[in-house]
């Protein structure tokens, strides 16, 4: 779970790749650097992420069977909400209790 700003969007085949500036990490099961690519397995714009927007994102680390692909994946039904101070307050509270 992290707060990120969408810097760019690009369709790559049947997927969408977002370049994201990672601002705050709330729960870190795998390492994140200050800029990451976030992949969505569709090109329909679901979830709708706008360039320049700040979002609270819950993503998964995706490693393929051959262990040759390691990336951050946001599923179409994943958690992606516009970032607000209220969202931050809720996430910080949840992180303390988890």
Automatic annotation (TrEMBL):
The keyword Secreted applies. SUPFAM superfamilies: TIMP-like. This is ATL5 protein. The keyword Secreted applies. One of its GO terms (cellular component) is extracellular region. Keywords: Disulfide bond, Secreted. The gene is Adamtsl5. InterPro entries: Netrin_domain (IPR001134), Netrin_module_non-TIMP (IPR018933), TIMP-like_OB-fold (IPR008993). It is found in: Secreted. Residues 1-98 form the NTR domain. Its main location: secreted.
């Amino acid at each position: 779970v992290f707060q990120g700003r969408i810097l760019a969007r690009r369709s790559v085949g049947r997927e969408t790749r977002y370049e994201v500036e990672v601002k705050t990490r709330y729960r870190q099961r795998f390492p994140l650097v200050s800029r990451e690519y976030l992949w969505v397995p569709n090109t329909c714009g679901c979830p709708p992420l706008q360039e320049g927007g700040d979002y609270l994102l819950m993503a998964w680390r995706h490693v393929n069977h051959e262990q040759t692909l390691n990336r951050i994946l946001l599923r179409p039904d994943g958690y992606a909400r516009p970032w607000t101070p209220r969202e931050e307050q809720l996430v910080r509270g949840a992180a303390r209790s988890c």
